[in-house]
Amino acid sequence: MNGSAWGSGGRVSRRSVIGMFAALGAPPVLGGTAGAAARPRWTVLRARPARVDLGRRTVATWAYDDVVPGPLIRATAGGTVRARLVNELPAPTTVHWHGIRIAFPMDGAPGVSQEATRPGETFDYEFTVPDAGTYFYHSHVGMQNDRGLYGALIVDDPHEPLRYDEEYTVVLDDWLDGVNGTPDDELRRLNSSSEHDDSIRSAALGGVAGETLYPYYLVNGRRPSAPVTFSARPGARARFRVINAAADTAFRFAIGGHRLTVTHTDGFPCAPVTVDTVMIGMGERYDFLVTLEDGAFPLVAAAEGKRARAFAVVRTSPRPAAPKPGARVPQLNGRMLTYGDLNARREDQLPTATKSVRVKLGMRPSGSEWTLNGRLANDPLRLRVDEGETIRIVMENESPMWHPMHLHGHTFQVRGRTGRRGPRKDTVNIMPRERLRIDVHADNPGEWMFHCHNLYHQEQGMMGVLGYGPQRRDLRMPHGTNGGTSGGTHSGGHGRPDRRTQDDRPGGREQGNGQGNGQGNGQGNGQGSRQGKGRRDDRRYRLGGH
Ligand code: C2O
Ligand code: CU
């Protein structure tokens, strides 16, 4: 129960493509009669209550195989992942493979691609991973992803074009489970009040950055007071694969004394660009190449607007003392990546879109119901497309908060304001009052969730579907699935989806000009003091001036 499968810092030999399952006990042999040579390799993910050590603090939570993050899963592009979910939780659950262009029945989307797996039951996920890159997996039921039910999924390129000496997987998270109640308690708290504390602010995120101050922010399941160390020799070229698995926190990522060369966004390669810092929304991933100096350096992921941070150490020499969690990192206020800096490779350009559909992101006056074209998840927006076509989704954020919008099953192309073909991504941050265009090539038939990856917004209704059948009309959303303590999601939560769902057909041409897709380059966090309201901030981890 202690520590994690990440050992001393998640260092992974590039040669060990098999992952870490061998250490996790004998995998079951499925498909029994096949000869030994034909036996597929199965990873077992046991979802169950566990006590997990976050570094000088052990918490009760739900996790895969008793570790946070869950076991690292590694595969090779074109290969197959086989993972058996064993549900030992007191609630139904699923595993969603975030960012993978997956076969629809394996998507782990409850009520859409499958019925959630009940307590005591198992579900076998078996799917091809067509594209190399940095991905992750997580429960897709209720607030479970804000517990410990997430892990990294790395797909290696058999012809990896990048050269590097070391590779590290860095999973970021915001943590309250077992410290300040549970994520379900937090959702109920947000739902029960019409007064919304908007003092968590960030200029770079266009206003309110988040709604919850978490007691801890974690790198690979560790608090800043007991950080992981990523070690290498001086001068080594290191690849960092950074995943934001948080529920309500964007992280501003930097490594003290170093610049970051961005090579991939959401798993897909981009033309390399070198910056000081990158804002990473929930569900986004970035890969960086860094040539490491001689010494010991702070790796920081500042919880944007929340005046706290996740922290780890990068060490290439045994001599210097480890940097302190509060170490000053000027790179955090240096040149920040914008989407405008990112370009897809020529071979990753999508065909020109032939249709366009508008999706308005809204908030109802309650302040705890978030909508897509005015609709909530219990009567979801369904964007209908035809297989083979490319559609443009024009998102207009009319709500007062930013949203990391995620589409299942596809990697879309972000288009710049002048039509420039920007990066391939599966999760994109859209700021308040911003209009942002993405092109989606419908080459993977199914019903695909399209939602905000702020988990609270997702559960408060911000969930639609992009569909080109086969629709599974036999499925039900799990109800009261969060350990029986849920239910507080009033009209915005997941109810049974309304089968009278109307399609929103892509209409005519898009009107007007986009406002561009920059993430803004605002510096520093908004100020504003947080007052009472029953928040239990842990000031020990508040940091001055990052
Ligand atoms: Cu990682 Cu539907 O999400
Ligand atoms: Cu949102």
Mean pLDDT: 84
**Which structural class matches the secondary elements?**
mainly beta
Helix content: under 10%
Give the percentage of residues in beta strands: 25-35%
Bound molecules: CU-O-CU linkage, copper (II) ion
Strand adjacency order, main sheet: 12-9-14-19-16-17
For the largest beta-sheet, the strand count, sense and barrel status come to: 6 strands, mixed
Radius of gyration: 22 Å
Could you walk me through the main structural features you see in this protein, from its secondary elements to its overall organization?
The chain has 546 residues and is mostly beta strands. The protein has two helices and 33 strands. It has helices at residues 183-192, 455-459, and strands at residues 43-53, 58-64, 70-76, 80-87, 96-98, 122-128, 133-138, 150-156, 166-175, 201-202, 207-208, 216-219, 229-231, 237-244, 251-255, 260-265, 268-275, 278-280, 285-291, 296-303, 308-315, 355-363, 370-372, 382-384, 390-397, 403-407, 412-415, 421-425, 427-430, 435-441, 447-452, 463-467, 503-504. Strands 12-9-14-19-16-17 form a six-stranded mixed β-sheet, with no helix packed on it. A six-stranded mixed β-sheet has the order 23-22-25-30-27-28, with no helix packed on it. A six-stranded mixed β-sheet has the order 29-26-31-32-24-33. A hairpin with a 4-residue loop joins strand 20 (296-303) and strand 21. The longest helix has 10 residues, at 183-192. The chain is globular, with a radius of gyration of 22 Å. The two termini are 33 Å apart. The relative contact order is 0.15. Bound molecules: CU-O-CU linkage (C2O) and copper (II) ion. Residues 370, 403, 452, 454, 457, 462 line the site of copper (II) ion.
